[in-house]
Amino acid sequence: MGGISIWSLLLIALIVILLFGTGKLKNIGADLGGALKGFKKAVNDEGAGPKDADFTPEQINEKADPNVTVTSTQDEKKE
Predict the structure, then answer these.
(1) Phi, psi at 71, each rounded to 5°
(2) What is the number of domains present in the chain?
(3) pLDDT in tens for each of the 79 residues of the chain?
(4) How far apart are CA 13 and CA 15, in angstroms?
(5) What b/e sequence results for 33-68 when a residue is b if at least 16 CB atoms lie within 10 Å of its CB, and e otherwise?
(6) Alpha-carbon radius of gyration of the chain
(7) Is residue 2 part of a domain?
(8) What is the span of the domain harbouring residue 34?
(9) pTM, 2 dp
């Protein structure tokens, strides 16, 4: 009483398969699995701390427009 029976769940599954087709449901499942995998990886990597870039401000200035100069660095902002 008040619960969903196994027959109701099977009927709902049948309707969903008829509406979307098995190919689209397979793609949705793969996308959902990939999203969950990425989320778990992000959560586990969060404990390792933020990852900084592997370059210095001087390297940025070398690649940047020669007419633009950087006036302060992140170390100066902390002080």
Answers:
(1) -95, -20
(2) 1
(3) 578 899 999 999 999 889 988 888 889 889 999 999 999 988 887 666 555 667 677 776 666 666 666 565 555 555 4
(4) 5
(5) eeeeeeeeeeeeeeeeeeeeeeeeeeeeeeeeeeee
(6) 26
(7) no
(8) 18-43
(9) 0.41
